[in-house]
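Appendix B: complex inputs.
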Amino acid sequence: MKRREFIQTAAAGAVLPVLLNGFPVAAYGQDNALLAALVNATTQTDRVLVLVQLNGGNDGLNMVIPLDQYSGLMTARPDIAIPQAQVLTLTAQTGIHPAMTGIKSLYDSGKIGVVQSVGYPTPNFSHFRATDIWTSASDSNVTWTTGWAGRYLDGEYPGFPTGYPSTQNPDPLAITVGSVVSNCVQGPTVNMGMAIASTSSFYQLLTGTVDTAPNTPAGHELTFIRQVVQQTQVYTSAIQRAARAASNLSPMWPTAGQNTLADQLKIVAQLIAGGLQTRIYCVNLGGFDTHALQVPATGSTTTGTHATLLGKVSQAVEAFQDDLRRLGVQDRVVGMTFSEFGRRIKANSGKGTDHGAAAPLLVFGTSVNPRIHGQNVQVPLNAGVNDNVPMQYDFRSVYASILQDWFAVPAATLTTLFGRAFPYVPVLRAGVATGTAAAADLNVPNFSVYPNPVRERATIAFDAEGGHVQVLLFDSTGREVRRLVDRVLPRGPQQLPLDATTLAAGTYYCHAQEGPRLSARLVVVE
Amino acid sequence: MDRRAFLRKPASALTAPAAALAESAQQTNPPAETISPYANKTLPTLPRTNAGLTAYTGAWGAAQAAHLLRRCLFGPTRAQIAAAAGSTLTAVLNGLLTAPAAPAPPLNVSATDTSVPIGQTWVTQAFDQNFEGVRRSSLRAWWLGQLLADGTLQGKMWLFWHNHFVIELADINDARYGYHYAELLRGQALGNAKQLCKDVTVAPAMLRYLNGNQSTATAPNENYGRELLELFTVGKGPLISPGNYTNYTEADVQAAARVLTGWRDNATTIAGYYTASRHDTTVKQFSGAFQNQAIPNGGDQEYKTLVDMIFGQAETARFLVRKLYRWFVYYVIDATTEQNIIQPLATQLQQNGFNVGPVLRTLLASEHFFDVVNVGCYIKSPLDFSLGLLRQLEVAQPTSANVAQQYSVWDYFNSLTNLQQQYLGDPPNVAGWPAYWQTPQFNELWINAVTLPRRNQVSDALLTTTGVTRSGFLLIIDPVAWVQSLPAATAQDPNLLIQAFVDVLMPFALTATQLAFLNDALLPGLPDFEWTDEWNQYLAAPTNVAKKNAVATKLRALLKTMLSQAEYQLS
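Resulting structure:
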């Protein structure tokens, strides 16, 4: 194992301050069992993280819509706001763009989490700089040249690319589906990822070009060099093998060429199902820089440029989840969207929006905590042209929480990766982090709350396994308001009554937990 | 070429300890792959052109100027292409064929060599094995530095003659001889081939390299005589009878060897010298390949008679012209090219007494040279690639005010081209780099699964935000400065600036698909106007590090994509 050799060599040389999870390796002898354990500690995981970059700055206020802010919203952006009646409701207070029916459906089935108003202090309004901040996870006033996921992978696979691929690590550490490898996975010395554009045409995959060389001496030499380029992509055969081993199964995938994000995620699903051990995939969809005409010049604001883009995101993610389920790998995958910034609260005169600050992001997968994190954006009643959405969550909180829960990265390492500690956000479900079982086995079986919305009384149903069961009700801020059961229940179907007559109208989360199994449902009290 | 490998002296016995490290790295780590499985199995038979040597009178613009300069220089800069495009073909060739003034000799930059202070030249000092390694490095660095700075055809032709009249510094083991040899080649780089052949024949480096210094009347050494005929002049034709290679015979090799007896090298004067008592004074009879000419005893002038006789053969001029053609145009010489290009150029070369400059002018000003079929088909050598990278992307270089840095940077690039399988001063054997003679692969020998990643590593290293530091000097591609030197309207338009990079870096126009791909590398998912906005924001606050980094990151991504394209390996 090259990683081991690397560290042992370094330890034997005793010149490098090699730290392993904070421990100086040189302090241990080469034959020390603890060291042996440590150097073999590249985290064993088959989990995959998919990063969906929405290039250009997504207008978050038209994606995740605060239903309780409509007067301010209609004042600030009368030309572009979505009519309230057409918003797809996620909760009583919060809705989503009507083009995102797939996201709505996934939310209802517990596979979408929404994190409100994600950003960072002192936002930067330059696309390039803001993208660098989001991909490097630096502070606004600091330039880091490595990507956050690249630093994580570099810690997991020291010395990359020397000695890679290897028997232990035969596959790419990260893959960008697209033309340019993502800066998210830029390591300290090399980018930890490779860019592929297609699994079928390796000519296109590796050069990004599809134009065949002409039948001339120059074309002859060009073809020769391209063949060597392909040959030198050390992961070509691994990717080809994975691509051959699985085929996409979902009928929901759109026709190729109609939705580039779907086309990319389709490749990701195929490679995951094909057994590729790659941990991080980066995909992207451009066009979110909607300064003008993000809605049609005439006609419904629910259509047009931004609606089309959000529709693509929705369609792509829904098809991706459906495919992952059919391929039997859905519990191994979580994804998140991000964009370099949101847009201004107030629309400009061209039916568009200018560069803004914080914006919501989506996390998706069977392992996500299917709730809305944080509060609705408070829209001023008379928003000025420079009014921005303030951040509620630092984007690094989201990154760090995902790394912690999904890849079991210790807190000390997180602090190293991000320069300091950031507050934890439970974007993944409790139990996912510690459980070795698949997320499906972490569900409380047949958990449901009905009727929902609740007027006075509801029933909470689930199957108990014969262990200690806890059923709690939280309000939208996370405060516990009711403890419905907290004791051992006999194995078998259970029904608990919920008396809602004393609860204020609003959104609640009902969590049911038995051992490592946990399920949550949104409960709306009217 | 087992015979030559056998004839080579074991380097270990000759190499100074100081140099052993560098040399052994080269020799004990043979690349896993030396010939790509994708390289030619047979010579390509793609259509060539019927265009001949008629003077090119077609369009003259940046594309034509760039084609000419790419083949004549180690990577023309944007400014050089623009200047040439604004001039005329004739004027540009006038400039290219005007050799620059002789450079100052290589300097001592190592405390190891105590014969002279640092910063002074060692080339006239006494030989000392303890200093040989650092002097050889100094010579190699100096040589590369001259090629890097050259703006004329002298550089390319200097390397051509090095690849033609090969010596290996590791074999001759005297850097002073090496300098003498290098200066000899440089002085005649655009000059007279026949005179150069005569001078090389009695140069101390060659006398030592091919054992002429051991050749006496009683024990003539055939090594130089054989290579003179086989590789340096008339070339080996088909074997038409035992010992008869059409253009010469084994007996001719022996006769030539006897002509050359009596010469030795003098390590004090750094010169070849003649000792009459070691010379074979009998008449040397040559075969029908040389019209049965006989060379009587001519003492220390006899070698000139031999060279004149060989250069009197029409095949010698053709042999040289074919090599020039492969150096400047393409490696495939079909029957049409032989008839339309090689023979007329050979006639011109012979008729003008073997002055190379006019022949190069004819070739490089011809319809044939500018035919689209001959554009972009030349695979860059490691020196083309590495020096071209520095020149085209205008990587700042240390100046002569700090020779330690200067030589350190040049030395570093020698180590890089060595890893790419081209080590200035040490071609792999007397035949030169096989990329110029090994059929059917030729240029394709430069590129394989080992060398291509090494090329990419060079460009990747210079493209990082930290660059490469040598002796305290930072080598780094500064894409922001490069773009800033463009006209303002070009710099702020993403597609125009991409085209500006393409015009310098790529050997021919890219397709619309490729240009769109590059646009996406620069501006992923963003409209073009955002580049204009971000660029102008940087220009408005040029000292704002964040704004500079914002555009620099994007330009690096663009360049990384461009430099990893197969097209960038072509010239």
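The mean pLDDT of chain A is 83.
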